Description:
Main location: secreted
Subcellular location: Secreted
Organism: Scopus umbretta
Structural class: alpha/beta
Shape: globular
CATH class: Alpha Beta
Function: Plays a role in the modulation of physical activity and adiposity.
Number of helices: 3
Protein name: Protease-associated domain-containing protein 1
Largest sheet: 7 strands, mixed, barrel
Radius of gyration: 15 Å
Amino acid sequence: CARPGLRIHEYLYFQVLSPGDIRYIFTATPARDFGGVFNTRYDQIHLVPADPPEACGELNNGVFIQDQIALVERGGCSFLSKTRVIQEHGGRAVIIADNAYDNDSFYIEMIQDSTRRTADIPALFLLGRDGYMIRRSLEQHGLPWAVISIPVNVTSIPTYEMMQPPWTFW
């Protein structure tokens, strides 16, 4: 059963607005067979790193994820389990970064686990290097979250204005 919106192997883009040192447009891929789609564009929404980062159970900062987007780290439980934890905490979406911090090019296909559970919020996969750099910048600035715009329509941005992360080859 196909979902409306993005298809497999299509990309979704988001831009970090602050902190300024990572004010780039990042590429993510949607989960293949679970989760919702972005029916709304968020011009300014918080990207909140989950605590604990793997988000496999109760969150210490769940109150900050309510009505925001969570940044979660791969590992410890299924992609679907992470998505459901964020959904249960009222998150609007989840971005799951690879736990291989040196991964700057390989997108993992997030698929349903064997539990027959569902999730309604969008779930996106982010390269490990990108997730690491976002978390590192927040730590360096002592910030609890980044401010992002999602999704971003990159077809309307001239190539010379596309601010891509310098560590990623496009």
